Amino acid sequence: MTEESIISENEKMNKLAQEYANLLAEESEIPEPDLRSEIEKARDEETVFNTKTKLSDIHGNEVTVPAGFKIAKDTGLTVQQGVVIEDVNASTDTAVQGSQFVWIPVGKFIKDDGTESNEIILGRYTFDETNGTLHLEQAAYTNDNPTNYENEVSILDTEGNEHIEISEYRQGLVSDGLDGENATAYELGKWVDSARINGGYYIGKYEASYASGATNEDTVGDYSKCKAASKVSETYSDSSMQYNTGTLWNFITQINASKVAINTYKDSSSVKSDLMNSYAWDTAIVYIQEAGNDNYANLPTDGKFINTGLGTDEVCKINDLAFNCSEWITEYSDKELGMMPNRHNYPTVWRGEYYTAFRVIGYMTTDGAVRNISFRLCLYM
């Protein structure tokens, strides 16, 4: 073979090698399929939603995200793990922005092992004090009656006291609103409708901390102008006389907690906020147990009073339901506390228990405020 033919053959081989290299390069440019769920993608890209948007996890479970929120960086990626949203601009108050809320599904969801959960009914429940087995006392709605919550059911506790969510003592009318003398769920019917239509609702990831509002040097002023945040608190309060932004919000009456909760997102166009009602609280426990946390209803606490979000009680990304403070809800009781029974002094009710078992139900007069009772926001669209 001549030298010229060898050069020619080398040129052919080099050309073929280059063509092969080009082909490999073209193939490498073919993008890998994006296997992320819509929730994971929204988290990674830090998408801020401008309209109410449905997202699905890897199992096809849907979560409704309101406008002005994004999927939080520390969210779970499935409904079972707990999907967390974070306020970006739904509130114009910078002290409230950054608040986080966890999705509570209504209906069924696919678990991470591929099995289907039992149906979660939005309702008021009692739980067995030994094993946490639930008993539905009243559904908020049924297929035949979307306003079943109006058919009040009095639930008896272990002491025989009646618990009342909607009654002549606790009307739940928006006309009471921030000026009502009793704690009032802000348009409870709209809250129920929102949960039914959207397939769920949100509760605060954390117990409330003080965000902003009317204050003086001694105490919080007009509670109907104050706002709460759902964030890890910067400190906790051992005093009822002073609040600074970021302080765990205890030392507050149920009535004032309701006013603060309603006011926090009162001016938002995408969400409304409220104090947790018995439907919201009890159904959250059903979800937590359905997500694999057996007998959470009777979880013993670690006996510590700390900043919210710094303890060991995190289930489905929800913090401190069983630990830290007890929390006010909008339920009343007919339990008499040595008073004449009338509209203003039926005792208010809290869920959870400081230092003891989770679902202890406590009572206090409507003007009671102590160190070990705080509150949590409930959010709906």
* Major sheet: 6 strands, antiparallel
Distance between the first and last residues' Cα: 83 Å
| Whole-number tally of structural domains | 2
Mean pLDDT: 84
Structural class: alpha+beta
Radius of gyration: 26 Å
Shape: globular
Strand order of the largest sheet: 3-4-5-10-20-13
Strand content: 15-25%
Kindly state the number of beta strands: 20
Order of helices and strands: HHEEEEEEEEEHEEEHEHEEEEEEE
Q: Give the uncertain stretches in residue-range form.
A: 171-176, 339-344, 355-359
Q: Helix coverage percent of residues?
A: 10-25%
Secondary structure tally, helices: 5
Question: Which short descriptors sum up this protein?
Answer:
6-stranded mixed β-sheet; 6-stranded antiparallel β-sheet; alpha+beta; 5 helices; single chain; 381 residues
Topology:
Blueprint (H helix, E strand, L loop, with lengths): L2 H26 L9 H8 L7 E4 L5 E4 L3 E3 L12 E4 L12 E6 L17 E5 L6 E6 L15 E2 L5 E3 L23 H11 L1 E5 L4 E4 L14 E3 L24 H11 L7 E4 L2 H13 L23 E2 L2 E2 L6 E8 L14 E4 L10 E3 L8 E2 L2 E4 L1
Parallel strand pairs: 16-19
Antiparallel strand pairs: 1-2, 3-4, 4-5, 5-10, 6-7, 8-9, 9-16, 10-20, 11-12, 13-20, 14-15, 16-17, 17-18
